Amino acid sequence: MKLNLVMIVKNEEASLGRCLQSAGPLADEIILADTGSTDGTRELALSMGARVWDFPWADDFSAARNFALDHSDGDWNLVLDGDEYLRPCSREVLTQAIEAHKGSWLGGIVRHDAFAEGNEISCSTSLLPRLLPRGVRYTGIIHEQPDCPFPCIPLPLEADHDGYLRKGKGERNLPYLIHAVDLHPEDGYYQFQLASTLRNLGRLEESLGPFRAFYRYGNRMGAYWAGGVVLYLYTLMDLGGSEKLKEAKKVVESERHSLSALADFSFVCGLFYMKLVLSEPSRYIAYLPEIESCYLRCLSIGERPLDGGVTGTGSFKAAYNLGTWYEASGQREKALQYYRLAAGQGYAPAEKRLQALRS
Predict the structure, then answer these.
(1) Whole-Å CA distances, 19 to 79, 80, 85, 110, 160
(2) Cα gap 107→157, rounded to integer Å
(3) Please, are residues 109 and 130 in contact by the beta-carbon 8 Å criterion?
(4) β-pairing verdict for 145-146 and 138-139
(5) Domain residue spans in the chain?
(6) Continuous H helices in the chain
(7) pTM for the complete prediction?
């Protein structure tokens, strides 16, 4: 079995060395398509044993991916970006995992995405189809996806990704996403990607239209659906006002059964019910117990990286929010209990509240 690492790159000198060091030991060959680097990316890749081809950029990420794949003779192709770094895994373990499955399938890796959240650096996970059998190609001008109906089977591969901490990525992607939505206005996936990009750029009002279109046209069985619903709810809450909260209430009530097993959804629901009650206590006071219930449900679900979502919504973040809820409602001992739980998992804000309550 031949396994190749296949990438497209442009000006990745700062991160490519770490990427190739992490993934190179798994690969028989490293295949790179350079789409126009002006730094030392090409020279670095060649020095690390990669085979590099130039690809004239054509405003189409799939075209670049497929060009690189066309130069690979691997039975399997591991597809990574230059700002993704595999966690340790031996070739032997990976080979055993691949040979354990028969038929046509795609290999999934769990990616850990670092992102800024206020003054903190948080992390989210997602299962991505990145090990492709020979012959599989990509479709989509941006946020490209494998063009096949094969199931995605998790492999013992995890990757860290720091690209969301870098400035400029959202601005780079935005014109492509606008163009993709113009071409395919009823494509829920493109609407989701446009909405989340606008949200990340702080353009919340502009993101609301694409979020509504995503919710109307999106595939409820798609891997992006649950995360899209959660971001839609956060956006409505961030914008605020009675009409936005009413819209969020409809979404919560519509999705609460189908998404009840996801900690991310229960977590955002806990925040939503808090905002709802505070917005008009006399009208919504009956929803007060839902706040506690949502966070307790998060802890009962726990952390499930394969399901995707923000790390901590099934553990320390939920415990911390329970602590604040109990503290605000005068239940000091319960507050201490859950602050200790969150602090024991390394969550610094919980340790600060513990110190404040002890003083």
Answers:
(1) 12, 8, 5, 16, 10
(2) 9
(3) yes
(4) antiparallel
(5) 3-165, 169-358
(6) 13-23, 41-47, 61-70, 91-99, 169-183, 188-200, 204-217, 225-239, 242-255, 263-279, 281-284, 288-301, 316-328, 332-344, 348-358
(7) 0.94
State the CATH class of domain 169-358. mainly alpha
Q: Give me the CATH topology for the region 3-165.
A: Spore Coat Polysaccharide Biosynthesis Protein SpsA; Chain A (3.90.550)
Chain CA centroid to CA 99, Å: 28
Handedness of CA 58, 60, 61, 66 (dihedral sign): negative
User: Please, are residues 2 and 28 in contact by the beta-carbon 8 Å criterion?
Assistant: yes
**Can you tell me the distance from the alpha carbon of 207 to that of 348, in angstroms, rounded to the nearest whole number?**
32
**pLDDT tens readout for residues 278-313:** 999 999 999 999 999 999 999 999 999 999 999 999
In this structure, which long-range contacts are made by residues 246-250, counting pairs with CB atoms below 8 Å and at least 24 apart in sequence? 248/272, 248/276, 249/276
Write phi, then psi, for 145 (nearest 5 degrees).
Answer: -130, 150
Q: Examine the pLDDT at 163 and tell me if it is beyond 90.
A: no
Residue 346 tokens, joined: 């390394």
**Is 164 a residue whose pLDDT tops 90?**
no
269 in Cβ contact with 294 (< 8 Å): yes
Whose structure tokens read 């809820």? 325
Local confidence band at 330 (pLDDT 50, 70, 90 cut-offs) = very high
Report yes or no: 66 and 132 within 8 Å, Cβ to Cβ.
no
Instruction: State how far the alpha carbon of 345 is from the alpha carbons of 178, 192, 197, 349, in Å.
Output: 41, 32, 31, 11
